[in-house]
Amino acid sequence: MADTTAVTRIPAAKLEAFLNRSFVAVGIPAGDAKVIAELMVRADLQGSEGHGIFRLPQYVRRIKGGAVNVKPRIRVVREAGGMALVDGDNGMGHLVMRFATEKAIEKAKAAGAAWVGVRMSNHAGPASLYASMPLAHDMIGLYLAVGNANHLPPWGGLDMLLSTNPIAVAVPAGEEPPVVLDMATTVAAYGKVKTKAQRGEMMPEGWMMDREGRPLTDSRRANEGFLLPIGGYKGYGLALVFGLLAGTLNGAAMGKDVVDFNADETSVTNTGHVIVAINVEAFQPVAEFRKSVDMLIRDIRNSKRLPGVDRIRLPGDGSHATRAERLKNGVPLSAPLAASLNQLAAELKIAPL
Q1: What is the tens place of the pLDDT at every residue in 27-48?
Q2: Does 60 share its domain with 120?
Q3: pTM over 0.90
Q4: Are residues 41 and 112 in the same domain?
Q5: Residue 333's beta-bridge partner residues?
Q6: Which label site among 62, 160, 164, 294 has the fewest CB atoms less than 10 Å from its CB?
Q7: Are the C-beta atoms of residues 43 and 125 closer than 8 Å to each other?
Q8: Cα separation, 238 vs 231, whole angstroms
Q9: Segment (H or E) for 332
């Protein structure tokens, strides 16, 4: 039996080059392939394994199945001073969301804040990728999306009408790392379930429930149950509202119209997103804001701890540390994932990892 626990460390640059080759091989222009590859590796570096190179075989299958437009005309279709609606022309979500985020940043420089909605996109990786982009411009970023498969029923129900609909918020600091919140409205994102299934690992109790209301911990039986929302009915409410804002408002898929991109390799998903950029300078001097954020971070970090607690963490601490460690030591790939990537390389007739 193959050892599913074995892990290989691959340098980020090597992963990025492999992703680049793969996307070019299926018809994506070289410049676009480079952008997608860089964003996917950034996901792996920060520890978002379920949204990084793990997704490559799935992306390739959907591109080959005609479900994704490899040469989209991404454009603004509605616009006002502090808003825009972007149509992604069914392009790769990473490309669509980079375009939308750049548009939000541009508008926020003039308007103080900008809300950009997106329709006709695809899966774009972890939410924090895009919420963090405004940080470089002394801005706060906020991102919402409709997940690409429904694994959450309404509270008390059984019909899968909602997804993991995530939120991410990134706030710049001064000497401290930025505060970066990135979370699904379910206890676990479905990508984490998929990575555990590939490795043959069990799920913690509390991630999923079967249709009889019993805890489901076998990741290989995930299709027999559904994800649980954070905070019970409150998480259900958040998933619904985020979907209305990122999906329904933009004319994107929501509810029963969401396509399960895990099982469907030919249908257009019409994925919806929202990116908001808030220009700190419009509210107060940037240096003052950064200083205030630093002070709050330090107050929280240095506050009194419960017995047995080694340190108090803030949103983003884990991803910052993971990125530093993986830039130094390489991105860990499980044996099953490495095997699937080498098999993909053979199918695409490109150099393997």
Answers
A1: 999 999 999 999 999 999 999 9
A2: no
A3: yes
A4: no
A5: 8
A6: 294
A7: yes
A8: 10
A9: strand 331-334
